[in-house]
Amino acid sequence: MSMQIELIELNTGAKIPSLGLGTWQSDPGLVAQAVAAAIKVGYRHIDCAQVYGNEKEIHWPAPMKKGSVGFKPENLVQPNIPSTWKAMEALYDSGKARAIGVSNFSTKKLADLLEVARIPPAVNQVECHPSWQQDKLQAFCKSKGVHLSGYSPLGSPGTTWVKSEVLKQPIINMIAEKLGKTPAQVALRWGLQMGHSVLPKSTSEARIKENFDVFGWSIPEDLFAKFSEIQQVRADLTCEIYFHGSIVKFYDWWFLLQARLLRGTSFVHETYGGYRTIEELWDGEI
Ligand SMILES: NC(=O)c1ccc[n+]([C@@H]2O[C@H](COP(=O)([O-])OP(=O)(O)OC[C@H]3O[C@@H](n4cnc5c(N)ncnc54)[C@H](OP(=O)(O)O)[C@@H]3O)[C@@H](O)[C@H]2O)c1
Questions:
Q1: CA nearest ligand 1 atom 10, residue
Q2: Which of 2, 39, 81, 244 is deepest in the core (most CB within 10 A)?
Q3: Does any domain span residue 213?
Q4: 134-173: per-residue pLDDT in tens?
Q5: Which atom of ligand 1 is nearest to 34's Cα?
Q6: CATH number of the structural domain spanning residue 249
Q7: 275 annotated active-site
Q8: Number of separate domains in the chain
Q9: How sure is the predictor about 238, in pLDDT bands with cuts at 50, 70 and 90?
Q10: 22 close to ligand 1 (CB < 6 Angstrom)
């Protein structure tokens, strides 16, 4: 296994390891073990959740009442991104943070923030994987020097309420077979070759190691080009055509579409908070 982790330079000059360990939905009893195993393997970037007291980013552009617990709609308050960003800038000025960033910002929200920011965000952490490639946001981030960090890089297969098919994608599996890698490694390598950092979550030591083994090799150009054909989440459609009570034709095919898996429905409400619809939350990028 190559232990040569690649570093990415941010717009502040600070460097971020291109692979991090995700910790969302890691059982509290397992997370410490997972982090210890990851550090031993060579991880130096851990993506922590608020519950572990480690929040450093604007996590969603949808604030909640101070001290509130859980996602009750009545806890949602009106966002004031410029004033929140001022507080983040003060944190940077104080030297406590070497870089400050945002998460789940659409192209429009990022553009609006860049208009008023004294210190531009260094990172936008967003859902990104071969079935939600974020082409528009990726190009915008690149043009503005904002690093895109990809969460759910494996398509969040452990999240029960998400229909994730990333690791089952035929193209990913074909590439994995050709290169003698696993589908997870191929999905992660795609993100790295796109210039993102990737944050796979695992509490299994074997998979923490497997996910780290994505350096020192690459997906060759001809196979990399195949990812533009994926651009989809599997959406089964079956259709039967009857004639005089008997099936004469049976179709089973899947649609080609890009789809966001984590839509943030908890941050949308007809009365509370700043967003009435999913379209408004993502400024149409859904
Ligand atoms: N900013 C945000 O709003 C936001 C939102 C979502 C996620 N995140 C961050 O991004 C991280 C990753 O996203 P995610 O947790 O949604 O999903 P993910 O990393 O795409 O997938 C994690 C799931 O894949 C399994 N897995 C890990 N390695 C595997 C492998 N090599 N082969 C097969 N299965 C594997 C894990 O199970 P095991 O644990 O059993 O291995 C877990 O069920 C989060 O943990 C969190 O830190 C941020």
A1: 151
A2: 81
A3: yes
A4: 999 999 999 999 999 999 999 999 888 777 789 998 999 9
A5: 39
A6: 3.20.20.100
A7: no
A8: 1
A9: low
A10: yes
